[in-house]
Design brief:
Mean pLDDT: 78
Low-confidence stretches: none
Strand content: under 5%
Number of helices: 6
Order of helices and strands: HHHHHH
Structural class: mainly alpha
Radius of gyration: 38 Å
Largest sheet: none
Length: 155
Amino acid sequence: MVEIPTLQELCMRMLERYPQYITTLYGIHSSLYARLLRKCTPQQLLQYEQEFELDEETKGLWKHHYFQHWKYLTNDQPEEVIDYRAEFLKRQEEENEKQLRLKRRLAQQTKSIEREKQSRQIQVIAKSNQKRKHSSALNAIKKQCTEQRIWKRPR
């Protein structure tokens, strides 16, 4: 026999699917919104903490995100020793800085490659449309040649 979900269960599924549309948690029992918070991303969780003052309810969730995001770390330390929220934000900031440095270095390398490429290119210099001025000696020779009918003027 197929079990029909309750209206509350259907609403919870919808909210779990789209947690970004939750505008308030006031008046909701902690067992219900704890289920919603488990589905949130770290950015959404941080936003909800700031808006609804949920520091105590989210400690375990930050630990989950911390070890999920940095899987190479081990869970050897006791929970009281580490503030996983602060550690998560610190590591995320370090990653962002590292990505920014890599992005800058890549842009710098690309520019240097482009400069090197341009220095090796053959540049074609276009002729100017102005007529060249001939020296007076050349003009005198042309005049003599035309008088003697040796040189014909171009038409």
